[in-house]
Specification:
about 25% helix; ORF3; 9-stranded antiparallel sheet; alpha+beta; Alpha-D-Glucose-1,6-Bisphosphate, Chain A, domain 4; 3 helices; START-like_dom_sf
Length: about 160
């Protein structure tokens, strides 16, 4: 049974900075609670180590769609099924400050009783919302992104470079 969760947040930073930070997969452990390590293999492929319910799991995931300042989508390629997307929408606050609305969606197949129960009672959604809050705090306190990749990926293939 596949479980889906969504979470959203407004970040007080321009869309290019927020998007750029999200392309820095290796920094995810700094603000995504379950993520222990992300290794960037190439422009499309990553290797993840996560801790869920006290159990470590590792898997590969590929970026399947990536359009600068708009959208990133990924899917696991081995192990348990996991897929997701994040969308970025530029906004301007009432005070005239550039903001970005971040919308996260994740789909996965819970493994075991703890993950199934966590999904059923909304613990996963709460964790995702806390992760987005940590992401917001991370980029707002820094005053900008740690790097960025501006290439495009469609159907799991790089179609435009970031140069």
């Amino acid at each position: 049974m596949t479980t889906t969760l969504t979470a959203e947040i407004d970040v007080e930073a321009p869309v290019d900075a927020v998007y750029n930070q999200w392309t820095q997969f290796e920094s995810f452990p700094e603000y995504l609670g379950a993520v222990k390590v992300v290794q960037q293999i190439d422009d499309v492929r990553t290797r993840w180590t996560v801790s869920i319910g006290g159990r470590e799991e590792a898997f590969y995931a590929d970026v399947v769609e990536q359009v600068p300042d708009q959208h990133i989508a990924w899917q696991s390629t081995d192990g348990i099924f996991h897929a997701g997307s994040v969308d970025f929408e530029p906004r301007r606050s009432e005070a005239g400050v550039d903001e970005t609305h971040v919308r996260l969606r994740m789909d996965w197949e819970p493994q075991g009783i703890l993950e199934t129960l966590g999904a059923a009672v909304g613990i996963d959604k709460a964790q995702a919302q806390m992760d987005l809050q940590r992401f917001k705090t991370f980029i707002e306190k820094r005053g900008g992104e740690t790097g960025g990749w501006r290439g495009e990926i469609h159907d799991g293939r790089k179609t435009a470079s970031d140069e």
